[in-house]
Design goal:
The complex is a heterodimer of chains A (459) and B (499). Chain A is α/β, with parallel strands linked by helices. In chain A, 39% of the residues lie in helices and 14% in strands. Chain A has 15 helices and 15 strands. In chain A, a hairpin with an 8-residue loop joins β11 and β12. Chain B is α/β, with parallel strands linked by helices. Helices cover 33% and strands 9% of the residues of chain B. Chain B has 14 helices and eleven strands. Chain B has a seven-stranded mixed sheet, sandwiched between helices. The radius of gyration of chain B is 26 Å and the shape is globular. The chains are: A alpha/beta (459), B alpha/beta (499). At the A-B interface, α1, α3, α4, α5 and α6 of A face α1, α2, α3, α4 and α5 of B.
């Protein structure tokens, strides 16, 4: 086996040194009746070239070369090549959690820079070293709010990513955190009146998403006022991190629960991604997840360590703030490098391009279909209502190697034939025009025009 | 000091500040394509929601970024540099072909919501990995959704709870041996169970008599790590399973130490009902400085109705798809389908090994641990002389007589060019030195490690203060962790704002 660095002679010498006759003797603690005496029924050992071929074949069956208008929590942005060049350095790729600080300063300083940049972008005082993803970050934020306020229930926007809501539901059920859902208005934003009625003295937090699942930007300030008036915390979930380049961050929030995938992480069929929590300084001791902090060594030299570990499971066991252990360090490093590449000016320009593409697409589609929630500001996604079933539209688009928007009826039955479309800086004008043309083919006005033309041609 | 240079030596190392300290206006590492649609007036579209300033985000060029992160990387130790003997962490070689195939276009670029029709490749990867893991564990069904080991534990216990609820009584507590990893009790608490500790016997195993006494109808499950954190196989595991099952309880196995078992025995065969795997341990996906992980949960048939949604199924037309309609499901634990990129890597590892390679891997892992045990026996105290599997746990009993603790020995090991072993647990061994070499170490590296540990033991006798002051050869000496926690500085601020 090519990964195993031993010759038969090495193994024999080691057994001799141990004083054992055969390697099987080392497995004698396993009762004989449970020892496996056959080969595992897994595929035979493959050559590297066979492995590469097998996965390339799977890639061909997986939409390779398709153009996509999907977003909804997973966004296709350009990934500068320096990201993979750097994260594949063995010293980052093959190191462990930096518990031994003297031997892991590279990872620790990178985390410290990551925490700083996330804080800057979200408008919060500080951020942790990452969480599993945006959905679990949102769930952990709610549990954090319960600890901070000593209250027990949560008010959740229905236009929060439906899968985030499902994850939160799973987490909250056994923490005895009742959740109240609040609907949206014709702008796609949270219904402020309904929200006001839903918040009570037992509300630990209000959780909204902005830009929300429909791509519209929430009026965070108004929601914050309601939360704070009732002594509850405001949690803002951000699924599309690039929006932070041009959209005012939720500075009035108490906790930001973010998915940073947009910052240089492959869409990769849904993971691994990079959740992050950011918060106000006064709440830091209730925040879950690893934190890197600055300190000095015995000679007064600056260095970094994992800190405030008394919140964590390996010290506190069942009294920990969370059971989280592993975070997403290497993915956070991708995010870190992406933020460094684009920086103060580039992120803003990138965000502007995203907005421009989505605005152009919406303007084109609106000639053949209805753009819902059109009156509120939005970032790079919009909801398109068609006369034709969006699944039928998507089938037609697939024939042209285009993946259309996400049909919403599965999550929002009341929206009928609506779909969520996304454009990023990678979406070209010609892609948009092609998709618009294909969507238009199914709309009655166009269909009749086309039929008339065909009849004329036939004549 | 004598043999320190055999593995490591001093080397010129670049200094590097924080990225913010290199930033200045006008530098850039990015270039966008020309916009092919009309520009938008963001102020008009966003109104008061328009962001005017991005604060202290850096402005640097590409070469500075390359140098910055490359310099930082050289301050890390890594498996690629040498043995990383962290007990229970399984720091094995991370094959490069895994990284290559995970980045193949079509896999890396695929969207979780694209139609199943054009997702057959990804689904096939999930199905094939699932089948392999079920064969390896001897279990009946599996979910790949949990993002890491701790989330796998949570998912497993949620299914345990749902199972008991379906029988009319969720039960109240989870039994956890005192040798367990810290995530076990934290997880049990997170799903609303009380934790009851189970004492180990004098051989470091679950005390079966104590278990029999503590087991009753209030106990939902026992969470056992096997081999446990002492590296000891629970020889009475089937008796343990029977005790649980007799009273209607379930047996949960923490699969953190599965690297000792693959191809040699199967948890499903010795009575385990539910277990999680750590793909970032046993199946070679990289630790990456602390993640991403991946924590699939394998279960017996009785728990299948409770799997998180969605579940990968073969449809009537032979294609693969996701099934969402599962009324008894515990729900979702993560958006989308889990850490898919890790599934690719783990499957590539299984392909590279095949059945013979997987077995040889396990044998070499156990051989290496026993070789180290033999080499250091006598030099370090061995609190339990029960046979070791893939890891061995010594204590600092002999060295602490000179005031030198396990963490001090660990810091001195850094000077010898090795990453320290695990010092934090198992809690049942005061001053533990928990050593797991994995199969990836050649004989030469093992000998260097044994020599280094022996040399440190000599130093403790000759000059304990020298060991207490270690490390001596790193960029920085021991850091003031107390100050870091008392007055946390968790982010950079420009100098005029400090204070």
């Amino acid at each position: 086996m090519r990964y195993l660095p031993k010759s038969p002679a090495d193994r024999a010498a080691m057994l001799k040194a141990i004083g054992t006759r055969s390697v099987d003797d080392l497995f004698s603690p396993i009762p004989a009746e449970y020892r496996l005496t056959r080969d595992l029924a897994v595929p035979r050992q493959m050559a590297e070239s066979e492995i590469v071929d097998w996965f390339k074949q799977r890639a061909k069956e997986n939409g390779e070369g398709y153009t996509s208008f999907l977003g909804a929590g997973a966004y296709a942005h350009y990934r500068p090549v320096v990201i993979d060049a750097l994260v594949q350095r063995g010293e980052f790729l093959t190191s462990y959690t930096p518990y031994q600080a003297e031997f892991a300063q590279g990872t620790l300083q990178a985390i410290f820079e990551f925490q700083t940049m996330i804080s800057e972008l979200t408008g919060m005082d500080l951020a942790n070293a990452s969480m599993y993803d945006g959905s679990t970050a949102a769930a952990e934020a709610v549990m954090m709010a319960v600890r901070v306020t000593g209250r027990h229930s949560a008010v959740i926007a229905r236009n929060l990513h439906p899968e985030y809501r499902e994850v939160l539901h799973t987490y909250a059920t056994h923490q005895a955190i009742p959740q109240k859902l609040v609907g949206y208005t014709s702008t796609g934003q949270i219904d402020i009146k309904e929200l006001e009625k839903s918040v009570s003295d037992d509300t630990a937090c209000i959780l909204i998403q902005s830009p929300n699942f429909f791509g519209t930007i929430e009026d965070v300030e108004s929601v914050a006022q309601i939360a704070h008036k009732h002594g509850a915390l405001l949690i803002v979930s951000i699924a599309e991190a690039v929006s932070l380049g041009i959209v005012e961050p939720p500075r009035q929030a108490d906790i930001v629960a973010m998915e940073a995938q947009s910052f240089g992480v492959p869409v990769g069929f849904g993971g691994p991604y990079c959740g992050v929590l950011a918060t106000k300084e006064k709440f830091v001791r209730q925040m879950p997840g690893r934190l890197a902090g600055q300190t000095v060594d015995r000679n007064g030299k600056r260095g970094f360590v994992l800190t405030l570990a008394t919140r964590e499971q390996h010290i506190r066991r069942e009294k920990a703030t969370s059971n989280i252990c592993t975070n997403q360090a290497l993915v956070a490093l991708m995010v870190n490098i992406f933020m460094t590449v684009y920086g103060k000016v580039g992120l803003r320009e990138l965000a502007k391009q995203n907005m421009a593409k989505a605005a152009y697409a919406a303007d084109q589609f609106v000639q053949h279909a209805k753009v819902l929630f059109g009156t509120a500001p939005r970032f790079n996604e919009f909801v398109l209502e068609t006369n034709e079933d969006p699944y039928a539209i998507n089938s037609r688009l697939l024939g042209h190697k285009i993946v259309g928007g996400l049909p919403l009826k599965k999550f929002y039955p009341e929206l009928g034939d609506a779909a969520l479309w996304c454009c990023t800086e990678l979406t070209t004008r010609s892609m948009i025009d092609t998709a618009v043309g294909l969507v238009a083919e199914g709309q009655p006005s166009v269909r009749s025009m086309k039929e008339t033309e065909e009849q004329e041609v036939a004549r | 000091m004598k043999s320190i240079t055999r593995k490591a030596t001093r080397h010129v190392n670049q200094n590097e500040g924080l990225i913010f300290e290199k930033s200045s206006p006008g530098k850039a590492a990015w270039k966008l394509t020309p916009l092919d649609v009309p520009e938008v007036d963001t102020a008009k579209l966003l109104g008061k929601q328009e962001r005017k300033d991005l604060g202290h985000m850096p402005e640097v060029s590409e070469i500075e970024i390359i140098r910055h992160f490359t310099r930082l990387s050289t301050w890390n130790y890594a498996i690629d540099l040498g043995m990383y003997p962290l007990g229970s962490c399984t720091m094995k070689y991370n094959p490069r072909v895994n990284e290559f195939v995970a980045r193949v276009e079509g896999l890396a670029n695929s969207h979780p919501y694209q139609a199943e029709k054009i997702s057959q490749g990804a689904l096939q990867i999930m199905k094939t990995l699932s089948d392999c893991l079920l064969e390896i564990t001897g279990m009946d069904a599996i979910t790949l959704q949990p993002a890491a080991g701790a989330q796998g534990e949570m998912t497993g216990l949620l299914m345990v709870r749902a199972y008991h609820e379906s029988k009319g009584n969720a039960r109240k507590k989870i039994l956890i041996p005192d040798s367990a990893h810290g995530t076990n009790p934290a997880t049990a608490a997170s799903v609303g169970y009380a934790v009851e500790n189970l004492k180990s016997n004098d051989r470091g195993m679950v005390d079966v008599a104590a278990l029999a006494a503590q087991m009753n109808e209030d106990v939902a499950a026992l969470m056992v790590t096997n081999p446990n954190t002492l590296g000891v196989f629970e020889q009475e595991i089937h008796k343990i399973a029977d005790l649980m099952h007799e009273k209607g309880g379930l047996l949960y196995m923490d699969g953190a130490n599965m690297n000792a078992l693959v191809g040699k025995t199967r948890p499903g065969d010795f009575g385990v009902d539910v277990m999680h795997l750590n793909l970032h341990k046993t199946f070679s996906t990289p630790h990456g400085g602390g993640g991403p992980g991946s924590g699939p949960v394998a279960i017996k048939k009785i728990l299948e109705p409770f799997l998180p949604t969605p579940v990968v199924v073969t449809k009537s037309d032979g294609t693969l798809g996701f099934e969402y309609n599962r009324p008894q499901s515990v729900g979702r634990v993560r958006a989308f389908y889990g850490n898919f990129g890790m599934f690719i890597r783990a499957l590539a590892y299984i392909f590279a090994n095949g059945p013979d390679g997987l077995r040889q891997t396990t044998e070499d892992a156990v051989l290496n641990a026993n070789y180290i045990r033999k080499g250091l026996e006598g030099t370090y105290d061995l609190p339990y002389d029960t046979p070791s599997m893939h890891e061995v746990v010594f204590s600092d009993k002999l060295q602490s007589k000179k005031g030198v603790k396990t963490m001090d020995l660990a810091k001195r090991l850094i000077d010898y060019g090795f990453h320290p072993y695990t010092t934090a647990f198992p809690l049942i061994v005061p001053g533990a030195l928990m050593i797991e070499p994995t199969e990836s170490e050649p004989l030469e590296e093992l000998d260097l490690f044994i020599e280094a540990m022996k040399s440190i033991a000599d130093e403790v006798e000759e000059d304990p203060q020298f060991v207490l002051d270690a490390p001596h050869n790193t960029r920085i000496s021991r850091l003031d962790e107390t100050a870091a926690a008392r007055k946390p500085v968790l982010r950079w601020k420009p100098e005029h704002q400090v204070g």
